[in-house]
Design brief:
393 residues; alpha/beta; 7-stranded mixed β-sheet; 14 helices; 25% strand
Length: 393
């Protein structure tokens, strides 16, 4: 079949790689002029790591393994910790921080020349009607050209053009928070270790994750509105978090870059029972955007890519594509909905116990809870045990 994927992010490239392995004709339409070489790092947890391995893109040599995740108060005092090394051993794949640019290159490295079509922003789409005699879908580009496909996969992010062309799917709504983040060298002990830290206080949260080579993936989460005008993000963050005494946060605030400080507003979709129509489906943030508080955004996109590959990959006749797409959506709905609910910043801040209580709970309990959560939001971890998701990749 001819399959068009809109968006060359993590999920779009992953599903293109998977479906290409089944012999389908793949074209990826990307609005950018090249793969994104900038940007920050990504936390790839056991489920996302397992999905990448199933898709033939192992990442054991990229970034930095995370052996422990610590939650701390804003004065640096340890609140609780998760033994992520133990979680990785139990679930079969370790947890890692990987620079986004390295991950994109790894996923794309076996796609034939011509599959990736850059500088091709999509303006709209004309999906075939349900039950029509043909399932062909027309995708319209900004330059007034168009392409036709047997299947279209919208992997074009929170404000997806493909999603907007489907009926009964409301847009994502802002959650009142945002992350300011970057991937930079920072002279702190965490940069050379395997311990990730999340520091929490009344003002918000700060995350610090080693990414290898002296790089640190770091972020600050704080209240935000689409109407907010922030002339100097660095000044705003110093003003908001400047009273924190955690030593690593203090170094971060001193060294905030004046540029390349990415703003990532938190949005959330209500996860529907189905997020496709006819021969069109969605993937990742286009289907189920949610805040990054549990670092599951990229992981859920990778889970989607593997599940969609498994459901659609073996289908040769375009007439069978709509049923395959609905199977994929049904398979992924419950894990994605759980990840969405658990990942709202407000949910995290409301439900984490205060420091004095958290410190009374043994680390093994936190570790087991985190492992249970990863398994619950995963299809690939369950499928690898029950053989529910066979793939050819």
């Amino acid at each position: 079949m001819r399959i068009v994927v809109v968006g060359a992010g993590v999920g779009g490239l992953a599903v293109a790689r998977g479906l290409h392995s089944f012999g389908h004709e793949i074209e990826v339409l990307e609005r950018g002029r090249e793969l994104r070489t900038g940007g920050a790092g990504l936390g790839i947890y056991s489920n996302g790591h397992a999905a990448l391995a199933e898709l033939g893109a192992p990442i054991g040599d990229l970034g930095r393994a995370i052996d422990r995740l610590e939650m701390c108060d804003d004065d640096g005092r340890l609140r609780n910790a998760v033994d992520t090394r133990s979680v990785g051993l139990h679930l079969g794949r370790d947890c890692r921080t990987v620079p986004r640019r390295d991950l994109l290159r790894r996923i794309a490295d076996n796609l034939p020349k011509g599959v990736l079509r850059f500088d091709s922003p999509v303006r709209g789409m004309d999906p075939a009607a349900e039950g029509a005699s043909t399932s062909a879908v027309t995708v319209r580009l900004d330059d007034d050209s168009s392409v036709t496909a047997d299947v279209v996969v919208g992997a074009d992010g929170i404000h997806s053009v493909v999603r907007s062309a489907l009926t009964d799917l409301p847009p994502a709504r802002p959650m009142g928070w945002a992350s300011w983040q970057a991937l930079t060298p920072v002279p702190i002990p965490s940069a050379e270790g395997t311990v990730a830290r999340v520091v929490q206080g009344a003002e918000g949260m700060c995350g610090i994750m080693p990414a290898g080579g002296g790089l640190v993936q770091w972020w600050f989460d704080a209240p935000w509105s689409p109407d907010d005008v922030v002339d100097s993000p660095a000044a705003m963050l110093r003003d908001r978090f400047g009273e924190w005494t955690d030593p690593e946060v203090k170094v971060l605030l001193e060294r905030l870059p004046g540029t390349d400080l990415g703003l990532y507003p938190h949005y959330r979709h209500q996860v529907p029972r189905r997020w496709g129509q006819g021969a069109v489906t969605l993937l990742g943030d286009a289907a189920h955007a949610f805040p990054p508080s549990t670092a599951q955004g990229a992981n859920q996109a990778l889970e989607d890519a593997l599940a969609l590959t498994a459901c659609l990959g073996p289908v040769d006749d375009p007439s069978g594509a709509p049923d395959a797409l609905r199977r994929y959506e049904k398979l992924r709905r419950r894990p994605a909905a759980l990840a969405s609910k658990a990942s709202s910043s407000q949910f995290v801040l409301r439900n984490l116990p205060p420091g004095p209580i958290a410190r009374t709970i043994p680390e093994r309990v936190w570790t087991r809870q985190f492992e249970t959560y990863l398994a619950a939001v995963s299809t690939v971890l369950r499928g690898s045990r029950r053989r529910e998701i066979p793939t050819k990749a």
